[in-house]
UniProtKB/TrEMBL annotation:
The organism's place on the tree of life at top rank: Bacteria
Domain Glycosyltransferase subfamily 4-like N-terminal residues, every copy: 23-185
SUPFAM superfamilies, A to Z: UDP-Glycosyltransferase/glycogen phosphorylase (SSF53756)
Protein name from the UniProt record: Glycosyl transferase family 1
Domain Glycosyl transferase family: 191-349
A UniProt-annotated Pfam family: Glyco_transf_4
Lineage: Bacteria, Bacillati, Bacillota, Bacilli, Bacillales
Amino acid sequence: MSLTKLRSPSVWVMTKEYGPAIIGGLGTVATELTKALKDSNVKTDVITASVHRAFRFTRGSRTAILRLPFSNRFYRGKRLTFRPHSIRRITARYLHRKPDVIHVHSLEFAQAALFFKRKYRIPVVYTCHSLVSKRGGRHTFRSKNQGKLLRRSNRIIVPSLWLKQQLRKRYPAAARRAIVIPHGVKSVSSRSGSKRYRLLFVGRLFKEKGIESLIRSVSLLSVKNRQVRLTVIGKGSRKYSKRLKSIARKKGISSKIRWRGFVPHKKVQRLYKAYGAVVVPSRKESFCLVALEAMASGIALVTTRAGGLKEFVNRDNAQIITGMNSKAIARAIQAMWDNPQRTLKRIRKGKLVAKRYSWRRTAARYKSVFIRLQKNKRRPLKRVKAR
C-alpha cells in the first residue's frame, strides 16, 4: 500500500506543557507542532497536565484536549509519572477511538505511552528535547523514564545532530532509531523602536545557561556604559534565584537588572522588539528556540555556539561569544554595539535563516514519520510455514 493511499493518521500527543500553560521550550514545541500537524490534516488529540485541580476536557476542530490534574487519581508524585490505567479509562470515555500513533514529549507520560504500545500495538514516537542527567534524587526517576522511552519507542526524534551524537554516546542502540528534525519558529513582530543598550535573556535559570557569567558581564559593561540594562525572563529554583540576585547585589548592579520571572510565551514574542539584543550565553543547548526567535524577530543575537546552536548560528548571523566567562560575554556585547553596520547585516541574515525553520516544514516531516509507522502497523503478519 502506498503512503498516498493511507488516510491521514490520528495521533495522541502526550505532553506535560501545552498552550496556554507553557513554561519552556518543550511546551512551545509541543503546542506549535501540534497546531501545524492539525493544519496538515493530522487528527491530534492532546493529553496534558492541568494547571487546575480538576480534570478538564475541551473539543475543537480536529483536536480534543484532556487536561489531567496532578492528583493521586492520575499522577504518581513520587515516581513523577501519570498513571497508565487512569489514562486508559479517561481516554476510553472521552476519545472513544485509539490513535494510529502516540507522540510523547514529556517523560511524565513514558509509562502511559509504553502501556498503550504493549497492550494495543500502537507505535510510539518520542521527541527527545534533551538527555536527563543521571544524578540522584528526582533525576533518578526521570532518567529511568527516559531510558524506557529510548529503548522501546519505535522512533526517536531529536532537534539537532549534536543531540543525536550525545544520544549515540549514552544509548547507542536508541541512536539507530533516531531522526533529526529541527524545530520551527513562528514569524514574530519585527524590530521597531528598540533601545540599543537594553539586553534580554530568556530561559530557565540554572548554571548551564550561563546566567551567572552574564550578570557579571553587565557589571563589566556598566563601568563605561551607564545605560546598559538587562531583563531576565525565566524561573529557576528559589535557592539558585537567590544566588543570582546576590551576585547582582554584590556587584552593585541590582538596579540594572529586571527580574521578570515567568512570562507567557506569546507575550515574550511581543517583547522581543523592545530590546536591542538577545543574549544566549549557554554552555549547552540541544537546539535553542530563543536564538531562532530572536532571529525571526529581527533582533541582534549575541550567543555561544554550544551544542545544537552551532547548526544554525554563525558569525554571519550573530555576534559569537568565544568563551564561557563574563569577560568573553562582555567583549561580544561591546563588539555588537561598536559595529552597528555589521550588526545590521547579521540581523538581516538571521531573518533569512529563520525563514527556513517553519513549523509547516517541521510538521510535514513528522507527518511522514507517522504515516510510515501507520503503514507498518497495518501490514499483515507473515505466516510461518510449519516444518
